[in-house]
Amino acid sequence: MSSEDRPATVAEGGPWKPKANPWLIAVVVALAAFMEVLDTSIANVALPHMAGNLGASNDESTWVLTSYLVSNAIVLPISGWLASVFGRKRFFLLCIVSFTLSSLLCGIATSLGMLILFRVMQGAGGGGLQPMAQAILADTFPPQQRGLAFALYGITAVMAPTIGPTLGGWITDNYTWRWIFFINLPVGVLTVFLVYRLVEDPPYLARLRGAGIRVDYIGIALLALGVGALQVMLDKGQEDDWFGSRFIVTLALVAAVCLISLVIWEWRQQAPIIDVHLFKIFNFATANLMMFVLGILLFSSLVMMPQFLQTLMGYTAQSAGLVLSGAGIVLLMEMPIVGQLTTKLPAKYIISFGWLCLACAMYYSTKRLDLQISFQSATWLRVAQVIGMGFLFVPITLAGYIGIPPEKGNSVSGLVNFMRNIGSSVGTSMVTTLLARRAQFHQSVLSYHATNFDPPFYGVVSGLSRQLVQSGVSPADSQTHAYGMIYQSMQAQAQTLAYIDTFMVLAIGAGVMFLLSFVMRRNDPHAGGAVVAH
After folding, report:
1. What would the DSSP string read from start to end of 211-235?
2. β-strand pairing of 14-15 with 530-533
3. Contact (Cβ atoms closer than 8 angstroms) between residue 317 and residue 166
4. Mutual orientation of helices 393-400 and 347-368 as an angle, nearest 10°?
5. CB-CB neighbours of 84 under 10 Å
6. pLDDT at 15
7. Tell me, what DSSP letter sits at residue 315?
8. Which three-class secondary structure state does DSSP give residue 163?
9. How far apart are the first and last CA of the chain?
10. Are 303 and 431 in contact (CB under 8 A)?
C-alpha cells in the first residue's frame, strides 16, 4: 500500500486512535456543522421582519444574507491552512466560539448596519465548522468506516437547509426574528464543552503545526476580493439585471481577474493557503466538480418547490415546509444505508446510481408539475427529487479522499465544502434567473393569440363576461374583469412552464454527471479506500 493510500489515522509507532468513542465525537462535530448550515437558510424568511423592525427596505435587508455568504465563502477554502496554523482542535473551538458570540450580537443588533457587521463575523466563524467537522471525522474513523461517519455528517449538510426556512418562519411568527440567532447559544456552549473534552488532534497535525507557517498575504487578498466579488455578483445578479448593470459587470471582472491570479499565484507557492496542486489528482478534481453540481441541484430544487407552492398554489410557508418534511424523513433513513453501502461497494457505482436517480427524478418533475398538483403528489414529487441526493453526498465526499495523503485531509475538506457552497449560490442565482427569463418567454408566446381577432380567445372573453354579469358585475366592467382573469391565468401558466423548463435543465445536468461518474477511479472499500482500477 502506498503512502497515499495509508489510513489517515496512521502515525509513527502504529495506528492512532482517539481516546473517546468515535461515534460520540461524530455526533458532537456533526452538531456543530448542523448549527452552521442551518444558519445559511433560517434567516431567509425573516428578512421582511428584520427590515420592518430595523427601519430598512426589503432590498437593503438582503445584505443580511449576502454578508454571511461572502465571509463564509472566503474562510471555507483556507480553513485547511488555518487549521495548520492554529491546530485543528483550536481552530474548530475558535470557530464555534466566534459563531456563538456573533449569533448573540446578531440577536441584539439595533440597526441594519450592526446586524450586517455581526453577520460577517458569524459567517467567518461558521466558515471553518463544516470542513473541520468533516476533517475530524476523516481522521477519527479508519478509511473503510469513513462512509458511515460521512453519512452522519451528510444528514446535517442536507437536512439543515431543508428545515431552515420552516423553522425560521415558525420562530419568527411565534416569537421574534431575534430568536433565530438566540437558539444558537445553548447549542454553541454545549458544543464548545464537548469538543474541548472529546476531540483530539492526531500526531501528524502536531508535527505540521510545529513546522512553521508563512503568511501568504497576496494569496489571502486575492481570495478575499475574488470570492467576495463572485458571491455578491451571484446574490445580486438577477436583482440588478445581470450584465445590464455596471455594478455586476465590475464584480464579474474583479472576480475573474482575482481568482485566475489566485490559482496562478498559489500554484507557484511552496506553502500555499489553498493547495491547488490537489486538483492534479483526477478523483479529487472530479469529486469537487460533482459536489459543485450537487450543490446546484440541491439548492435549486430546495428553492423551487416551496416557491412554486407558495406563489402559484397559495400554500403558506408552513404548508410548503410540510411538503419538504417528507423528503427530510426519507433522507434520514437513507443516509445510514448509503453509508453502509460504501463499505460494500466502490464509491463510483453508488455515485452513478445516485446521478441516474436524480436525472430521472428531475425529468419526472417536468411531467408531474402543474397547477392542479395535490399536496400528496407534491410531497411524493419532492421525495423522488431527494432520493438520488442521498446516494451522492456521502460517496462523492469519500471519493474526494481517495489517493490523498493524511496531512492533506484538512485542505480536502475545505475545498470540497467550498465547492458545494459556491454551487448552492450558483444554483439559487441560476434558478431565479431561469424562472424570470423563461416566464417572460412563455408569456410572450401565450399572448400571441390573446387578441380579439383570434376567435377562440374572443369566445372565452365573451363567455367570462356573461358569467360575470350573471354574478353581479356591471356590463361595463365585465369585459375588463374578464381580461384581468385571463391575464392572471396566462401568467400562472407561463410561470409553471418556466418551472418545467428549469427542471429539465437540472435533469440534463444530472445526466452529464451520470456519464462522468464512469470515468472516476474505482476504490476497494475493503482495502481502506485504495484505488484498484478504473
Report:
1. T-----HHHHHHHHHHHHHHHHHHH
2. unpaired
3. yes
4. 140
5. 20
6. 61
7. -
8. helix
9. 17
10. yes
In terms of Cβ atoms closer than 10 Å to its own Cβ (0-12, 13-18, 19+), residue 259 is middle
Three-state secondary-structure class, residue 14: strand
Could you give the CA distance from residue 398 to residue 232 in angstroms, rounded to a whole number? Answer: 31
Neighbours of 171 (CB within 10 A): 20
pLDDT of residue 499: 92
CA 378 to chain centre: 22
- What pLDDT sits at residue 479? 67
Q: Which residues contact 146 (CB under 8 A, 6 or more apart)?
A: 137, 138, 342, 398, 401, 529
Q: Which residues contact 347 (CB under 8 A, 6 or more apart)?
A: 147, 395, 396, 398, 399, 402, 520, 522, 523, 525
CA dihedral 352, 358, 360, 365 (to 10 degrees): -170
Q: Are β-strands 10-11 and 522-524 bridged in parallel, bridged antiparallel, or unpaired? A: unpaired
**pLDDT at position 458, please?**
65
Helices (H), 269-281: none
Q: Give CA–CA dist 63/109, Å, rounded.
A: 15
Residue 329 in contact with residue 460, Cβ under 8 Å? no
CATH class, domain 1-213, is: mainly alpha
Q: Where are the domains of the chain?
A: 1-213, 216-270, 278-437+500-534, 442-493
Question: How high is the mean pLDDT in each 10-residue block of the chain (534 residues)?
Answer: 40 59 86 82 74 74 79 84 82 92 90 88 87 84 77 78 75 82 90 88 66 71 87 80 85 91 85 81 87 87 82 78 80 84 84 92 90 88 88 84 75 83 83 86 80 68 72 70 75 89 92 88 59 43
* pLDDT confidence of residue 59: 67
Nine cell digits for residue 369 = 408539475
Are 63 and 118 within 8 A, CB to CB?
no
Compute the 3-state secondary structure of the chain and give helix, strand, coil in percent, each to the nearest 5. Answer: 80, 0, 20
| Secondary element (H or E) of residue 98 | helix 88-107
Q: Looking at the domain covering 278-437+500-534, what would its CATH class be?
A: mainly alpha
Phi-psi group of 115: left, alpha or beta (phi > 0 → left; psi -120 to 50 → alpha; rest → beta)? alpha
Residue type, 520: M
Distance CA 125, CA 120 (A): 9
In this structure, what C-alpha cell is assigned to residue 362?
428531475
Q: How far apart are CA 478 and CA 107, in angstroms?
A: 52
Domain pair 1-213 / 278-437+500-534, same fold: yes
pLDDT of residue 96: 93
| 14 strand-pairing partners | 11
DSSP secondary structure letter of residue 401: T
Q: Is 523 helix (H, G, I), strand (E, B) or coil?
A: strand
> CA dist 447 to 437, 454, 479, 488, 494, Å?
15, 11, 17, 12, 10
Hey, is 282 helix, strand or coil?
Answer: helix
Give the pLDDT of residue 411.
Answer: 79
